[in-house]
Amino acid sequence: MAKSGREVDAQSVAAFTVLKRAVELDSESRYQQALVCYQEGIDLLMQVLRGTKDDTKKSNLRKQITGYMDRAEIVKKYLDQEKEDGKYHEQIKIEENATGFSYESLFQKYLNETVTEVWIQDPYIRQIHQLYNFLRFCEMLIKKPCKVKTIHLLTSLDEGSGKQQQSSGLQEIKESLQNHGVLLEIEYSSSVHDREIRFNNGWMIKIGRGLDYFKKPQSRFSLGYCDFDLRPCHETTVDIFHNKHTKKI
């Protein structure tokens, strides 16, 4: 079914909005995010091209698409070489009270069908909200396109009144993951301090605050209680690296 002119115009606006963001990210040397936006914007622009009847407009669109595709290919080759050399590093600064940084928004671009094993090192998976954070992270991992089979968690043991709560909470998560065909291996260490997440496709993410960077919601019925893209964050820094020879923590 042919699209109306209004629909094509709306898609065109959406495409160029995404591509404008791609150029901004590119100029800031945030190449991985820029590549994602280039790819998404090009796909949208291809849809606009298919719905355009005017030959002059079609010719101009083809030229623009070619230009963006050429730049995206250069960025992709640069990133591939950086990964190959083990030099890739990107830093994202999450400002105080910033939103839009759910686990899906932050990690999804690094997850694909090659991810089968994940290592998580975080000393603070103890309190109820931290256990829920870890559960939410695990939920993301079992969704497509991932094919995660094993999750390794290295954390510290709560030696206080929350010990039973931590133990039972992690056991419930372990059993729930098992029902989805995923093995959760839990290890405790009193000397663990660093926070990092590794995927066996080579990506490593270090978050200053670990998984616990979300602020407490204002109430049970406030925006952001369920959708963490709407949840304000604490200030923290996210460092992203790539090494094709990813090793266990």
From TrEMBL:
InterPro entries: MIT_dom, MIT_dom_sf, MIT_domain_contain_protein1, MITD1_C, MITD1_C_sf, MITD1_N. GO terms for biological process: midbody abscission. Homodimer. Interacts (via MIT domain) with CHMP1A, CHMP1B, CHMP2A and IST1. The keyword Cell inner membrane does not apply. It is found in: Endosome membrane; Late endosome membrane; Midbody. It comes from the Eukaryota. It is a peripheral membrane protein. The lineage of its organism: Eukaryota, Metazoa, Chordata, Craniata, Vertebrata. One of its GO terms (cellular component) is midbody. Keywords: Cell cycle, Cell division, Endosome, Membrane, Transport. The keyword Cell cycle applies. One of its GO terms (molecular function) is protein domain specific binding. Its main location: membrane. This is MIT domain-containing protein 1. It comes from Mustela putorius furo (European domestic ferret). Residues 8-86 form the MIT domain.
